Amino acid sequence: MSRFFLLALLVILFIVFSEGSGQVGASDLTDLKCPLRKNLAMLKGHMCQRSCESRNCSKARKCVCDGECGMSCISTGLSCPWPVMIDNAEAQLAQESRKFGDLMEVTCKPGFRMADGQEVVMSHCQGDGKWSITLPCEDVFNPSPRCKSPPGIENGFHEDGPYNIGREVNYWCDYGYRLEGANSLLCQENGEWSHMAPTCHPVNCSRPPNIAEATLVAVHQSEYPVGTVIYYLCNKNFYLDGSNRVICLENGSWSQLPYCRARCPIIAKRSRVIYQGRKLWFHEVPDGLVHHGDTVTFFCHSENKTCSFKAESQCFDGVLKLPDCYDEPTFLRYHLFPKRLVSEIPAC
Ligand SMILES: *[C@@H]1O[C@H](CO)[C@@H](O)[C@H](O)[C@H]1NC(C)=O
Ligand SMILES: *[C@@H]1O[C@H](CO)[C@@H](O)[C@H](O)[C@H]1NC(C)=O
Ligand SMILES: *[C@@H]1O[C@H](CO)[C@@H](O)[C@H](O)[C@H]1NC(C)=O
Ligand SMILES: *[C@@H]1O[C@H](CO)[C@@H](O)[C@H](O)[C@H]1NC(C)=O
After folding, report:
1. Which residues of 221-250 are buried (b: 16+ CB within 10 A; e: fewer)?
2. What are the two backbone dihedrals, phi and then psi, of residue 171, each rounded to the nearest 5 degrees?
3. What distance in Å separates the CA atoms of residue 280 and residue 21, rounded to the nearest whole number?
4. Which end of the chain has a smaller Cβ tally under 10 Å, C or N?
5. Kind plus residue range of the DSSP H or E element containing 335
6. Listing from the earlier edge strand, what are the strands of the sheet with 214-217?
7. Which ligand is nearest to the CA of 26?
8. Which residues pair with 246 in a beta bridge?
9. CA dihedral 211, 201, 44, 101 (to 10 degrees)
């Protein structure tokens, strides 16, 4: 973002803030965006005060948005200096006071313009007790030097010109590349860029993890470039939980991995259960196993043992818990009184 837009944004923010009582509490600000860009603040010579993103301020300070410094503890008694001398420009207060957030209008003298072509710009009183810097006014017939085009980078790009003094230029890497170094350069007063250009490095995912009871379908490599797609297949009788398609993400991690879930053995062997809508003995269920995620209904005795009620349990990755109320009939009861088994007596 150019310095001008940043300033314009701040001006709008401060106009909004200074409406009404002019005193703004932290709670009033929580809905507004207050971007924290401490490096940029530092480059501009804006001294950040203690942050109140996560801590309260002391009594004499208020939690307010201090531009790129983010939510900060600002002294309530703060005022910016006046009068102010600016080369080739006239300064005028936009209001009587010069408290935090108050505005000062800076107008270039005739024959002078700011490097971005503006004649008038608003400066505001910052949390460090200084006016935010405005671009210097330059002689329209003898403009001050600008920075040269910032260096281009491989597998990345930067913002376009013009590269005026005070201009911040952002760099980005192409998809699949990670930026190393400063992601923005500032065109300094001396016409030089503040930093070396960053570099872009390919991001790789490491070898994909093994998943229990799954077979990986992928070309065997030690590193996989961003965007690589691999597949997992579950072994026979295992249920695929999740997506079998896994992709190498921009941050070098694999997307969500699936699970291969086991079927569950039915432990109740001396009473019938309801499975897939049918009342079955365990040996009537294929392999005596139910699918992951399926629900099985068991029969439990009422307290007086004269009737039965139903209780459900769900198979999860090989485990089908018996409901607490379920009592497995004894060997004798199962063989001698098959009609009196819990699953065979009337329902309550
Ligand atoms: C911060 O202020 C809030 C609201 O006044 C209060 O509820 C909270 O206890 C304070 N936290 C600390 C750490 O003092
Ligand atoms: C990623 O893989 C590419 C190509 O195999 C390789 O040139 C590069 O050095 C790797 N990057 C990292 C950070 O290991
Ligand atoms: C990578 O990005 C994904 C999706 O945005 C996220 O879920 C994951 O936690 C990230 N991994 C790391 C190591 O940051
Ligand atoms: C046993 O309990 C069930 C429900 O709890 C009830 O419906 C039934 O009448 C009771 N039978 C006897 C004999 O008490």
Report:
1. eeebebebebebbbeeebbeeeeeebbbee
2. -115, 150
3. 76
4. C
5. helix 331-336
6. 214-217, 229-234, 245-247
7. 1
8. 230
9. -30
What's CA 141's distance to the chain center, in Å? 48
Q: Whose CA is nearest to atom 3 of ligand 2?
A: 202
Higher pLDDT, 158 or 40: 158
The mean-pLDDT minimum among 72-76, 135-139, 163-167, 187-191 falls in 135-139
Ligand 4 nearest atom to the CA of residue 304, by list position: 1
Is the C-beta atom of 199 inside 6 A of ligand 2? Answer: no
Whole-number Å distance, alpha carbon 56 to ligand 1 midpoint, is 6
Residue 49 tokens read as: 């005060």
CA of 230 to the centre of ligand 3 (A): 17
pLDDT bracket for residue 326 (50, 70, 90):
very high
Cα-to-chain-centroid distance, residue 37: 16
pTM here is 0.52
Which strands form 278-280's sheet, in the order they lie side by side? 278-280, 273-275, 295-301, 308-314
Of residues 311 and 35, more confidently modeled: 311
Smallest CA separation from ligand 4 atom 7, residue: 348
- Residue 30 pLDDT greater than 70, yes or no: no
Residue 301: pLDDT over 90: yes
Judge if 204-262 and 264-340 fold alike in CATH terms.
yes
Residue partners of 59: CB distance under 8 A and separation at least 6: none
339 phi, psi to nearest 5 deg: -75, -15
CATH homologous superfamily of 204-262 equals Complement Module, domain 1 (2.10.70.10)
Q: Which CATH superfamily is domain 77-143 in?
A: Complement Module, domain 1 (2.10.70.10)
Q: Is the confidence at residue 159, as pLDDT, over 90? A: no
Q: Distance between CA atoms of 166 and 194, rounded to whole angstroms?
A: 10
134 C-alpha to ligand 1 centroid (Å): 37
| Domain 264-340, CATH class in plain words | mainly beta
* 30 Cα–ligand 1 center, Å: 15
**123 strand-pairing partners:** 104
